[in-house]
Design goal:
The chain is built from 12 helices and 5 strands. The protein is α/β, with parallel strands linked by helices. The longest helix has 15 residues.
Length: 227
């Protein structure tokens, strides 16, 4: 299947560069371009996009607001958002993950990293393996005031619905580990890990692994370490 990609960035030059890169791949195509978040939401719906490459800073409706709108729309449940940011450390990235983004990528990333991110997101996974993402989440959630003010007590209660094994898997997911890595650590099959991940997502109301990571931190199941 061809991955349908939507480009949302207020810089036309960047959109053109991304279009050339994406369209050069046999398994993906650009189905639309938007210069602001509102247009991105509409195009995601009309063009049946699979993945949106979303700039976080745009005039009008920014990428964060657009991500929330896409995540909240049942008609767009299949759409995955990958946030593109100029700075690797960006105050809005964790908020974007909470809003429903499947991950983030710096605009200075290598072309292969961007293409890989699209494929990962389209496959229903989350772009969480890179240490930059893991470290960024930890950096912001490790701040005491953020944890105290933004922790959702309902999420902590919903953890009670998880089995012991599902909690163990969730801790590993929060560490940025892949299914294969978790399977090796817990001495089970990758398919078993995938089943536990899917059940945890359903019980916690998470769209994907990215939101599972945030829930794990916000609920207090995992306490980030800042070196």
């Amino acid at each position: 299947m061809t991955i349908r990609v939507l480009l949302a960035d207020d810089q036309a030059l960047l959109r053109s560069a991304f279009r050339v890169l994406v369209d050069s791949e046999p398994d993906m195509e650009v189905v639309g371009e938007a210069s602001d978040g509102a247009a991105a939401v509409e195009l995601a719906r009309s063009e049946r996009a699979d993945v949106v490459l979303m700039d976080i800073r745009m005039p009008g409706t920014d990428g964060l607001a657009a991500t929330r709108l896409i995540s909240a729309d049942p008609a767009l449940a299949q759409v995955r958002v990958v946030i593109l940011t100029t700075f690797e450390v960006d105050d809005y990235v964790v908020q974007s993950l909470r809003a429903g983004a499947s991950g983030f990528l710096g605009k200075g990333s290598e072309p292969e990293e961007l293409l890989n991110a699209i494929r990962i997101a389209a496959g229903g996974e989350a772009l969480l393996s890179p240490a930059a993402t893991k470290g960024l989440i930890a950096r912001f959630l490790a701040q005491g005031d953020v944890l105290d003010d933004e922790r959702d007590p309902d999420r902590a209660q919903r953890l009670d619905a998880l089995t012991v094994r599902e909690r163990e898997v969730l801790v590993q997911v929060a560490g940025g580990h892949s299914n294969d890595e978790i399977a090796e650590r817990l001495e089970v099959s990758p398919l078993t890990v995938k089943t536990h991940v899917n059940r945890a997502m359903a019980k916690l109301g998470a769209r994907d692994r990215a939101q599972l990571v945030v829930i794990a931190y916000e609920s207090g199941l995992v306490r980030p370490r800042v070196d």
